[in-house]
């Protein structure tokens, strides 16, 4: 634990938790004082009834495995004495640098400003913008792991499930937009929002992988006029702050 004197000098910091068995960084976070040490006290009850239970569960299991091996988590203060207004950007940059983390949510702004190749940067900023306020109710879903942007079917399947989402807000949406790095690549008309279970999505979910606390939707590609409005031929770049993803993969419009 840090003494009070040391904690004051640290200020705001970004830290990493490292697995001593393989040297792998498995979690990145931000904090002050002794926040970095709190994770090591996680127990099996810590992730019950929490909004971020998936992240806490994965992190807690990793920590338990390390302890069961007779070892201790390695704590690294990656950068300290960070101005408070910059802490989210520093955390996001570190999260982006370590793939495979137990962090469920990406870093602040990673969806729109995260790692991209030179080609992706050029393509993104050459695209037409969505710089007007939509009149439709929308759910925007960040699907940055999409590998095939040329296939509407592939975009739909990646967007379809499984999400921790407000069912009430989702059902009020006229359309679902698929977003990759701040660019809308697909638009879909949802028919129904259902629990993410094998019974509702037999082709995508195995029985043993049911996720009733998450949702998915059935639907079809949006009508041509809506597709052209939000996607066009190669995608459209979001230039409205209220539509941009910050950390959560789900964004609603209007907010």
> How many distinct helices?
9
* Number of structurally distinct domains: 2
The share of residues in extended strands comes to 25-35%
- Major pleated sheet: 7 strands, mixed
Fold and architecture overview:
- Residues 43-52 have low confidence and may be disordered.
- The protein is 28% helix and 27% strand.
- It folds into 2 domains: 4-107, GIY-YIG endonuclease; 118-253, no CATH class.
- The protein is α+β, with helices and mostly antiparallel strands.
Task: Give the tags.
about 260 residues, globular, about 25% strand, single chain, GIY-YIG endonuclease, seven-stranded mixed β-sheet, 10 strands, alpha+beta, three-stranded antiparallel β-sheet, 9 helices
Q: Would you summarize the structure shown here?
A:
With 255 residues, this protein is of the alpha+beta class. Helices cover 28% and strands 27% of the residues.
Topology:
Elements: H1 4-10, E1 12-19, E2 24-31, H2 35-38, H3 53-68, E3 74-82, H4 87-97, H5 110-113, H6 118-126, E4 129-130, E5 138-142, H7 152-160, H8 167-171, E6 175-180, E7 183-196, E8 211-221, H9 224-230, E9 236-238, E10 250-253
